[in-house]
Amino acid sequence: MIRLSEIITELERFAPPELKEPWDNVGLMVGDETQIIQKVFVCLDITSENLRQAIAFGADLMISHHPLIFTPLRSVTENDPIASIIRTAIKNNISIYSMHTNFDKTEGGMNDLLAEKLGLENIRPFTADECVDGDGTPFTPIGRVGTLEFPMPLEDFARQTKAVLCCAALKYSGDLTDIVETVALCSGSGGRECMYAAYHSGADVYLTADLKHDIAMTAHELGLNMIDAGHFETENIICGFLEEFFEAHFPEIEVKPSEAEPFYSSL
Question: Which ranges in 137-202 belong to alpha helices (H)?
Fold first, then answer.
């Protein structure tokens, strides 16, 4: 019999909670570490849809990337979507565990997985001298830099990215004829800091998601090509990782990945 505490120990050995960003919330969101776990449902988000799938599967545990509880709750009632999910999980004896920015940062975690999926080689974190903003203020970004074995035009790399990540659509900024060899990336919402790190790394393109207008404009002024490949698409790869993780560490536990699609698509 495998207890939840044993699973948490292995997950946190791989992605230590102390790696998380100060604003983040990771770890056990709902549950009891003494619970016996036989079935695990893995997903990007703890949504009502994913919870229904987990209940139908007979899951004892849900593991997500995005934390279910991100901001403090003042009450746990059916009137609040997050609180309603918590109530339903408890009623069905389902524990919930999330690993977010600690998984993004750790070696072999989200950003390394994304870089490998995109076919990058010589993958590395950003260096200290690359991690300064436009005013020279240092920061610690989340992301990776790597190179393509066979350089290609930006248009070809964008199309390849769309196919590999199964993007319904993606946005880009830059010259589609520019040759891409060095790629900087940050899964999910890569903000201004990672954009500057990508620029200082000498990358030919910066790939992320949820790019805000002002950040895109600054990158354009800096001459940095960009691809916004979607938040869901750049991070849903956690499901495949967790399936392999349990096969390696807890083969007796049955694992089911979410069948959820992105919240939005394109016409």
Answer: 154-164, 192-200
Structure tokens at 157: 């790399």
How far apart CA 75 and CA 84 sit, in angstroms, is 10
pLDDT band at 265 (very low <50, low <70, confident <90, very high): confident
Mean pLDDT (whole number) for 18-29? 96
Nearest CA among 124, 115, 105 for reference residue 148: 115
160: buried, middle or exposed (CB in 10 Å: 19+, 13-18, 0-12)?
middle
CB contact at 8 A, 82 and 119: no
d(Cα 177, Cα 72) in Å, to the nearest integer? 47
How many other C-beta atoms are found inside a 10 Å radius of the C-beta of residue 162?
Answer: 18
Q: Which amino acid is at 118?
A: L
For tokens 């949820």, the residue is 210
DSSP state of 253: S
Question: Does the CA dihedral 179-184-189-191 come out positive or negative?
Answer: negative
Residues of the chain with pLDDT > 70: what percent?
99
Q: 160: which 2 tokens?
A: 């390849």
With 80 as the cut, is the pLDDT of residue 267 above it?
no
- Least Cα distance to 23 among 100, 134, 138 occurs for 100
pLDDT of amino acid 125: 97
Query: Mean pLDDT, to the nearest integer, of 157-173?
Result: 95
Rounded to an integer, what distance in angstroms lies between the CA atom of residue 96 and that of residue 67? 9
Q: Which amino acid does the sequence have at 149?
A: E
Which residues, including other chains, have CB under 8 Å from residue 120's CB and lie 6 or more apart? 144, 146, 147, 148, 183
- Give the chain's domains with CATH numbers: 4-103 (3.40.1390.30), 107-234 (3.40.1390.30)
